[in-house]
Amino acid sequence: MGNITLGRYIPLDSPIHKMDPRAKIVGMLLVLIAIFFPAGWYGYAILFAAVAFCIILAKLSFTFIWKAMRPMLFMLVFLLVINTLFLKTGTPLFTIGSFTMYSDAVFQTLYIAVRLLLMVMITTCLTATTKPLDMTLGIEDLLKPFAKIGVPAHEIAMLISIALRFIPDLIDETQRIIKAQESRGVDLKEGKITERIMAILSLIVPLFVSAFQRAEDLANAMEARGYAPGEKRTRYKVLKMQARDYVLLLICAALLGGMIALSIIL
């Protein structure tokens, strides 16, 4: 769990870090939409090159991105098993007894793996280059037009920001609980299934207690500082879009348009 990097802000001096959070959030959404268009391997190669360039520009290491991808490897293996059992189309690759693996099963799994990799790369790049406070301000500004129909823009932005902020803290707390349980003789990796379930329960219960305690402490701190949802608030930091932010949006929009065109052609 210590390898989970989602939600961790990495303070570096890069052009991506200096961009407006609204431009980064909208750009991420455009790229995420583009990922789901069936643009073929050429389209995914273009998206991968663009996202990889952003990661390099943000001065993030690909090892950091790989750590965010590792927790999903089990799910990919599971999807490969399911696809090989149920997808019986395409070219037969090999046969073992009565079992035959077809090419479509492999290609379908590879498509899902590439999409997941791109989604993890772009979301990790966003959270690693955007401060939680800036993320809150950006989401709130983007949701402001919906406030006219009763959408609580500030409260939603605050919830998302708090959730992202506490992901690393919960991971660290889980690591501490695991070490404390192991020092008391609890084995989370070996033993029978029933023993491992009981060991996991001994981990989940204190983790939930700790999470609720953190939530209560945060609520008390916000109330002590006079926080009142729905009240009009002033800002110390005012977001301003610059030329580089518009360039980012144009590039992301062009990527989306390119994926739509490729999906139509292919």
**Can you give the helix content as a percent range?**
55-70%
Which runs of at least 5 residues are low in confidence (pLDDT < 50)? none
Question: Which class do the helix and strand fractions yield?
Answer: mainly alpha
Query: How would you describe the oligomerization state of the chains in this entry?
Result: single chain
Distance between the termini: 40 Å
Summary, kept brief:
By secondary structure, the protein is mainly α. About 70% of the residues lie in helices and about 5% in strands.
Describe the structure.
With 266 residues, the protein is mainly alpha-helical. The chain folds into two domains: 1-130 and 240-266, no CATH class; 153-229, no CATH class. It contains nine helices and two strands, in the order H-H-H-H-E-E-H-H-H-H-H. It has a two-stranded antiparallel ribbon. Strand 1 and strand 2 (99-102) form a beta hairpin. Helix 1 (21-35) packs across helix 6 (132-143). The longest helix is centred in the C-terminal third of the chain and has 32 residues, at 193-224. The two termini are 40 Å apart. The model has no long low-confidence stretch (mean pLDDT 81).
